[in-house]
Amino acid sequence: MLAKAEHLRVIFKNSLIVLLANVSAGATLTAGLWSAVPHSRLLAWLAVLAVFHGARWIVTRRLPRMPPDVAAVRQREILLLAATTTSGLVWGSAAILFYVPHEPAAILFLTLILVAMTAASTALLSFHRFAYPVFLGTVIVPLGVRLAVGDGTAPMAVTVVIPVYFSLLLILSRQIYRFTHEAIVTALLRERHALVDHLTAIPNRRAFEEFLGREWLRGVRTKRPLTLIVADVDDFKAYNDGYGHAVGDAILRAVASLFRQAARRGTDVPARIGGDEFGLLAPETDPLGASRIVLNIERSRDLLARNTYKAWPLPTLSFGLCTVVPSDAGSAFELFEAADAALYEAKGAGRNRAADCRARRASSSHAGVNTTPNCSPPFVPGASPRHAESPADSLGPGEVLGGR
Questions:
Q1: Whole-model pTM?
Q2: Average pLDDT, rounded, for the chain
Q3: Which of 9, 16, 33, 176 could form a disulfide with 126 if both were Cys (CB 3.0 to 4.6 A apart)?
């Protein structure tokens, strides 16, 4: 679906070129047949062609950036096919309206322009699987029928050549589509690989920073809380040294699975920040909801440790939590610093713990991460965030997880 969205984006992006090409070709056809076809008919047809493609360009210009949404992609695909069909019918009507019997020069000129239009549209319309065949059929079928019923050897000769010529163009169109599709898919995969940690199959640090920056800006607009949870595997180096790097990799994959399971909403983003440090970004989540997420991760870890791991124990985790209401005065980087400081506070207090951010009250220039000495900033009433089921689920600063 992302590849199809990219195909459509390329076509819509070049709508101005399509407008200019159609108007230029239409004006050329009108000028060339000016002495053979009634002027009113030529001008009316040219006006329809120009108005349609002008409206098409205006509509495509106003389309918002393509979202990765199935319904939106299908809607724009339908729009493209409808516009392509209409454009083909307008050009196909020229084969009927402007065909002048017993004037070979006018017939050949009309045929030349129509053939040139269909050939010129091969490159752009081939970015869609069906757009070019639709345009080709609506233009060439009326022309072929009109030439077939006409008199003279020249029209008959063109009628014989046209199927072969446009069959070759159709084959070329399919090859262009396959080539561009493979190139787009390769680019998408390369981008995915650049944003996904290859070991744990969750977003990497680069993707995490992009999501964090985007959600910070969204929080500035909505004035809703943004929670960041960072975690570290306790004594990971000792596990790596004692059991080997294969066990270390298995531990990282297991922890990644815990964070992936904890990201239950589409807006939640789990990530491997680096080494044995993981993060979870939870928009519209207040401090109680953040504590609930941490408890769920710890309970899942305990269950996994009891049911799966026998040869070596699954290490515990330490957590740092921070919830803020983003503002223009602060930054996403300050939020990350506050959560990371809380993490190291938890590790310094004995590991296997969760600590809320205890950042000092920032100066007026850093008021965006407005954390109090004991907890995250208050939740904005009416924002309807995710929160814990009861106050008992909330973890105080430095509190030991799981009752240990």
A1: 0.56
A2: 82
A3: 176
